[in-house]
Write a structure and sequence with these properties.
With about 80 residues, this protein is an alpha/beta fold. It has helices at about 10-20, 40-55, 65-75; strands spanning about 5, 25-30, 35, 60.
Length: about 80
Amino acid sequence: MTLPDQLTTDAAPGLLDALREYEGNPLTLSAQKVSFVGGLCAQILFAARQKWAADGLSFDIEGSSSGFEESLERLGFSADTFIGG
């Protein structure tokens, strides 16, 4: 699944719906084109990663852009929290 360029508050409902479609299956997200991650979308990604881990399924983010990583760091997350299964 490819993440959109802008993970703003307006993108949060669509992100949540898209993630729900993959529930119960291993998931790899591409963050290659992401230039911005807002707080709500970061929380959704974090919660999804925790859910997938609790279900014993892989949740990977590959090809992260510098914008993706910098946005997460500004929010107090390490990109490693999300990257690398």
